[in-house]
Design brief:
By secondary structure, the chain is an alpha+beta fold. 38% of the residues lie in helices and 20% in strands. The C terminus is likely disordered.
């Protein structure tokens, strides 16, 4: 233990050990202050998902990355399964994509704070699948209608089951349905996926390799060899630092995965379809009003909108 640097702040510890980057695995509520301190200390950050508890804080962190000039990448570890990479390649062979579905059914007894959360499935888990569909399609969300409920046998205080229908920017509909109190015939932690397009269908059980049936015959599953889960996120982070290329989990893009969660919760709470731009604009107003650093507030105000366009950045 004598060789381990200890301190009460990330900049203090980083200075003591000569750090070149920060891996932020604090609880979500601490993501914003730790990330801001690290970036303004001149350190790029790989942060565990979610980028922040709210989209407003996520937009603030995007502004911090711009002002500081440092990379902030979010570790969406489930993007890095080889099976998902293979499914993405097969999806590209299907032509126009009409529908993507994910079924997620697990029955974990976590105990503690998760069993007390108000929107436990949507807030704590669904971001993995919501982020994965953005990766799979190279499309971003336009709107969502969501219903959530708590089955009578649930051991959760809040809603442990939900169905959400997203319209994506390419016109595809993404349907997510799941439950965290679903004993028996459980899916993998990645869920069970089906992609239907003009040229056929591909499916993935979330664990092995996907399969596909094309109008022209059986689809050939491509090879995929890369690090998976957290190791995959770390590899992309290091590669981005060395090459200067923007990684897939860069904060501006990742905010669009978080807003899928926040908009789904809004829809479930109001019973109304929610436009993603409306959810983003509401979060943007909160971010501007709450920002205490003049330089970050100026960066936010200079954009004029939370999202000027759908694409790789939440605002640009």
């Amino acid at each position: 233990m004598r060789d381990i640097a200890l301190g009460t702040s990330v900049s203090e510890v980083a200075a003591a050990c000569g750090a070149h980057a920060v891996v932020n695995v604090t609880v979500p509520a601490a993501h914003h202050p730790v990330n801001v301190e690290a970036m303004f200390a001149g350190l790029p950050v790989l942060c565990e998902k979610p980028v922040a508890p709210t989209v407003a804080e996520g937009l603030s962190l995007a502004a911090a990355a711009e002002v500081s000039g440092q990379l902030l990448m979010i570790s969406q570890s489930r993007r890095y399964f080889q099976g998902l990479t293979q499914l993405k390649a097969l999806t590209a062979e299907l032509g126009d994509i009409g529908v993507v579905t994910t079924e997620f059914f697990k029955a974990p007894h976590f105990g503690g704070f998760r069993e007390e959360m108000a929107h436990v499935l949507l807030v704590d888990m669904a971001i993995h699948q919501f982020d994965a569909v953005r990766f799979l399609l190279d499309q971003d969300p336009v709107s969502v209608y969501c219903e959530e409920f708590n089955p009578s046998w649930s051991w959760y205080d809040g809603a442990a089951a939900a169905t959400a229908v997203f319209q994506m920017s390419g016109g595809t509909r993404y349907v997510y349905t799941g439950s965290w109190c679903a004993d028996g015939l459980e899916t993998s932690w990645n869920g069970s996926w089906r992609v239907n397009g003009a040229g056929g269908t591909a499916a993935w059980d979330g664990a092995g390799s996907p399969v596909a049936e094309l109008m022209s015959g059986a689809g050939l599953v491509p090879d995929a060899s890369h690090e998976e889960e957290i190791a995959g996120a770390l590899a992309e982070f290091v590669s981005a630092l060395r090459s200067g290329e923007v990684p897939s989990g860069e904060v501006h893009s990742n905010v669009l995965s978080l807003v899928m969660v926040e908009a789904a919760v809004q829809s479930a709470s109001t019973g109304q379809r929610v436009l993603i731009d409306d959810a983003m604009d509401g979060a943007y107003r909160v971010a501007v009003a709450s920002e205490r650093r003049p330089d970050m507030r100026a960066a936010l105000e200079g954009r004029g909108s939370a999202r000027v366009r759908l694409g790789n950045r939440a605002f640009s």
